[in-house]
Amino acid sequence: MSAHAVPPRAGGTTSRLLALAILCAGQLMVILDGTIVNVALPAMQESLGLSASGLGWVVNAYLIPFGGFLLLAGRFGDLFGRKRVFVTGLVLFTAASLLCGLAQNPAMLLGARFLQGVGGAVTSSVTLAMIVTMFTEPGERARAIGVYSFVQSAGGTLGLLLGGVLTQAVGWHWIFIVNVPIGAVAVLLAQRHLRAERGTGRGQSTDALGAALITGALMLAVYTIVGASDHGFGSAHTLGFGLGALLLLAAFAARQGRAADPLLPPRMFRFRNVSGALGTHTLMIAGIFSFQFLTVLYMQRVLGFDEVRTGSGLVPVSLLIGVLSLFLAPRLIARFGARPVLLAALVLIAGGLALLGQVSAGGTYWADIFPATVPLGIGFGLAMPALAGLAMSGATPADSGLASGMFNTMQQVGASLGLAVLSTLAASRTATLLGEGTPAPAALTEGYRLAFRISACFVLGALMVAATVLREPPRPADTPAARPPAPRSPASRTASA
User: Fold this and answer.
1) How far is CA 289 from CA 398, 420, 452, in A?
2) DSSP class per residue in 282-317
3) CA 33 – CA 43 distance, rounded (Å)
4) How many structural domains is the chain composed of?
5) For residues 124 and 144, what is the distance between their CA atoms, to the nearest angstrom?
6) Are residues 268 and 416 in the same domain?
């Protein structure tokens, strides 16, 4: 048994459910902070005197280190123990949240947001790996991944709602300070109730050079992506930094082929479901991440909604995701398999985004937004548990932390890529129409319509990858060890005698 493997009933069902709650609470804090700042940005700008570009970096300063450190932190979890890495990330994230809440100038806020991103990456990198090693029975694992997926997907919407409420009620500082007591309690509970585990590679090298190369490549790639919306995809800035990221990535690949204990063993790419799930996840997130961002802009800038009403308008999606991922998805996956469920879910997501591609300048929430929330909520509630299960099924127990880090890394890269591409396309289309004399609401709406349609194309790309690359993992009853021996014929018994 792997050093990380946990016996199926170790500690009892109650203790494992408590551990799941602790892991998901930590993950929820991290996900919330990815979106909770969005509706508070105008208040931050007024309070701290942030410039327009500085305002964007309140988000980017969190996103860049989050995407850059996930893979390295996941490997550290495999080597030195995932509980230790998880708790370390929680402590750093909680301390950085306090610094954000106390920030009195832009430099302090942006620096603290960077530390928050690092802490969030360290916390998130091992969460999924700890869940799949705690819950080894297929039905229990599907339900546990459903809970994790609900936290992942619904946390973003909850962040928009909480951000509006806290900002209007007590001020923007409290969207960060509220993390402090929650994080402190989570750290104490994690220390007490999570299983301590010995890492699989205490005697191994951590491949410091490889770690520096891949972290630099990922951070530079995410920086290039998020900066492309300001500088343009064909600018010297974007092309130069993009080339730098590719060179670092090439150097990392060369290093992994020579290192005695590589950070990212080449064998990871021989796992068909790991590679396929990463590609599917990146394209799916690139498409659906725009849903929250662009829908918020449409509701505020075209329909005239305030912060609280905007957040409330996305609650139906969270409710559907919760019901599907927590209750229905595990049953459907157990009955039909993860791959068929994922394929159907991607069709629903693409359909929901195509509906949003028909919004109108004189529209309403119930006619233009709500009908799309139904297929989007159902689709994403089914897709995330199925996709996470497929990704983790392709990795060995010793590499599950690394696979978890890769899975979460692609989520951040996909979100950055999708947001940069789609927001640039929407802004460009709007600017063109405004220059032609089109009224602002109509010009904005046309930009959003174009972006939603491209989003649907991203998800259709994810569907193609999933259909051609992913394979259904064998169920316990399908494995040779689980099948009863076939009855032997009289002839075979005579021959063996």
Assistant:
1) 31, 11, 11
2) HHHHHHHHHHHHHHHHHHHHTS---HHHHHHHTHHH
3) 16
4) 2
5) 16
6) yes
Same-domain pairing of 172 and 301: no
Same domain, yes or no: 191 and 284: no
Which of 48, 49, 34, 177 is CA-nearest to residue 117? 34
Locate tokens 């505020």: which residue? Answer: 300
Handedness of CA 110, 112, 115, 117 (dihedral sign): negative
pLDDT digits (tens, 9 = 90+) for 417-468: 787 778 778 888 988 899 999 999 999 999 999 999 999 999 999 999 999 9
pTM above 0.90, yes or no: no
Matching residue, tokens 């309070």:
47
> What does the pLDDT read at residue 483?
41
Report the 10 Å Cβ neighbour count for 202: 10
63 pLDDT band (50/70/90 cuts)? confident
Amino acid sitting at position 257: G
Q: What is the DSSP string of 387-410?
A: HHHHHHHTS-GGGHHHHHHHHHHH
Q: Is residue 395 part of a domain?
A: yes
Instruction: For residue 380, give the nearest of 334, 330, 346, 410 by alpha carbon.
Output: 346
- 190 closest CA partner among 97, 118, 93, 112: 93
d(CA 321, CA 302): 26
The CATH number given to whatever domain includes residue 446 is: 1.20.1250.20
Q: Is residue 221 part of a domain?
A: no
Q: Which residue has the tokens 């150097």?
A: 251
Does residue 187 sit in the same domain as residue 297? no
The last residue of a domain, from among 138, 171, 195? 195
CB 1 within 8 A of CB 175: no
Q: Which domain holds residue 417?
A: 264-472
Distance CA 266, CA 277 (A): 17
Do 315 and 161 form a contact (C-beta atoms < 8 A)?
yes
Residue carrying structure tokens 């130069």: 240
Q: How far is CA 291 from the centre of its chain?
A: 14
Tokens of 113: 């947001």
* Dihedral sign of CA atoms 126, 132, 134, 140 in order: positive
**Are residues 441 and 325 both part of a single domain?**
yes
Per-residue b or e along 360-382, where b marks 16 or more CB atoms closer than 10 Å to that residue's CB: ebebebeebbeebbbbbbbbbbb
Tokens 């090439």 label which residue? 250
Kind plus residue range of the DSSP H or E element containing 150: helix 138-169
In a domain, 495, yes or no: no
- 42-75 as b/e, with b when 16 or more CB fall inside 10 Å? ebbbeebebeeebbbbbbbbbbbbbbbbbbbbbb
The residue from 145, 176, 195 where one domain ends is 195
Please tell me whether residues 419 and 317 are part of one structural domain.
yes
Map tokens 């191994």 to a residue.
Answer: 204
Do 45 and 174 fall within a single domain? yes
Give a yes or no: residue 128 inside a domain: yes
